[in-house]
Amino acid sequence: MASAVKHFAGLDFIGPDASTFLQGYLTADLDALQPHQGLPMALCNIKGRAVASGWAFGEADHVRLVVHASVVADIHGELGKYLVFAKSKLAPAEDGLHFAQEPLGPEAVALPGTGYWLHTGADEGHDDFANACVEAGFVVVAKPVSQTFLPQMIGLTDVGAVSFSKGCYLGQEVVARAQHRGEVKRKLRRYRFGGPPPAAGDDVLHDGAKVGTVTAVGAGVALACTRSGASPATASGVSLLSAD
d(Cα 241, Cα 204) in Å, to the nearest integer? Predict the structure, then answer.
């Protein structure tokens, strides 16, 4: 049964320098790119803030990114100005994204850490996969928190989305400096809640003071970037209990 909401979208970079171009903009090392194994990655702006995150897979001349559907326009805006100098083009994936907990054919793509596989075809499984990402602590950056956090603040270094050994990429100096100087004071934490869910971008409050921001929400679980693990906390009036 298809999901009511298509949370995720595919973006294709096609051309002779597709992976070479993206190597200069994504946090992952695209030398490790594979056709059937998703490579966790993020796209940062020049200030090192994550514009988008997700997975990359494919081959040198055709790379697909799987990202949150709400940041597709932001990716076009961030990379479009550089693509004029590339031999590749950026286009929405023509086929749908079908997420399942098992490979359904030889073209299935593993999405590490989530227990899910990606297939092409009708859009299916988006809700369940979104929940799996939250349970796994993988923040797929959505519009409300895009360009807000360093990758370290939302756990992207913990899920292998950032390489500290590859060459330069957009925002790399800021990300590397924060990592090596230990300047990141906020980090990703997990909370449980009951009743209506909070939303990504909501303030997390403790004793009436803001201590962080909700970054992703699943079924009864919310991920938040906070200065402390204070519990209980609230977001939009919803009680959050630390699950770390």
Answer: 11
Q: Cα dihedral angle (214, 26, 28, 5), rounded to 10 degrees? A: 50
The identity of residue 27, as a single letter, is T
Q: pLDDT tens track of the chain, all 244 residues?
A: 444 578 999 999 999 999 999 999 999 999 999 999 999 999 999 999 999 999 999 999 999 999 999 999 999 999 988 998 899 999 999 999 999 999 999 999 999 989 999 999 889 999 999 999 999 999 999 999 999 999 999 999 999 999 999 989 999 999 999 998 877 889 999 999 998 999 999 999 999 999 999 999 999 999 999 987 778 899 999 999 988 7
pTM of the model: 0.94
How many C-alpha atoms does 51 have within 13 Å on its Cβ side? 20
Q: Which amino acid is at 25?
A: Y
| 3-state DSSP assignment of residue 17 | coil
The DSSP string of 37-69 is B-EEEEEE-TTS-EEEEEEEEEETTEEEEEEEG
224 has which bridge partners? 189, 214
Contact 53, 61 (CB under 8 A): no
> Which amino acid appears at position 184 of this protein?
V
Residue closest to 214 by CA, chosen among 227, 231, 228, 199 = 199
